[in-house]
Amino acid sequence: MDPEAPLVIVDVDEVLGLFMRGFETFIARHGYEMRITRFALFQSIFEPGSDQHLDIARGRVLFEAYFAGDVEHMELTPGAAAALEAFALEASVVILTNAPPQGRDPRTRWLIRNGLDFPLVINSGPKGASVAAIAAKTRGPVAFIDDLMPNLESVAEAAPHVSRFQLVADERLRPHAHSAPERHPRYDDWADLQAAVLEAIRR
Ligand SMILES: [Mg+2]
Fold first, then answer.
1. Residue 175: CB partners within 8 Å, gap ≥ 6?
2. Distance from the CA of 166 to the center of ligand 1, in angstroms?
3. For residue 182, what is the DSSP state?
4. Cα(26) to centroid of ligand 1, in Å?
5. Which residue in 92, 109, 134, 141 has the fewest CB atoms around it within 10 Å?
């Protein structure tokens, strides 16, 4: 990594890739359906005809299985690849994901297949400490992009000099996602986000 260059740190699920849509296709093959009425993954999985969401533990098993394989066929979010390509012309790019351990290889293949061959860092829990450590490798301006408020808040705490941006890729999730746009500007369209991030790292 260039110690003088700007840096963009970017999440995968529901940012670069349409996680919810891919997971929905996966659980459908197991006989379940997704009903998106809140921002809570495991409370959105239902057996057809049931008005009670699937048992959380069962949902977690499906989630773990999805990450071991099918996740590598997830659809790319429109505009994401073009934006990373634009960032890479003037900044280092690092992918920071909270995939479970079995997700590392499928995730790496997914990134390469989609032309996003950037360094991949697997994190667990809130991302502040990891972002602070990666950001410390450059004296240039740093931007961080994620869909989840706990990660954005954690970065604000641990690395306040990093510009934070929120994007929620799935249109159905957007109305349910928690935001604080005055602290973490939110752009749900990649073209808008691309412009805002470039402005931030050119300072
Ligand atoms: Mg995410």
1. none
2. 10
3. T
4. 18
5. 109
CA of 151 to the centre of ligand 1 (A): 9
Q: Which residues pair with 163 in a beta bridge?
A: 143
Sheet containing strand 120-122, strands side by side: 120-122, 92-97, 7-10, 142-146, 163-166
CATH superfamily of 7-19+74-201: HAD superfamily/HAD-like (3.40.50.1000)
Q: Give residue limits of the domains in the chain.
A: 7-19+74-201, 20-73
Give the pLDDT confidence of 60-116 residue by residue, as tens digits: 999 999 999 899 999 999 999 999 999 999 999 999 999 888 889 999 999 999 999
Q: What predicted TM-score, i.e. pTM, was given to this entire model? A: 0.96
Given a contact cutoff of 8 angstroms between Cβ atoms, the answer to whether 95 and 121 are in contact is yes
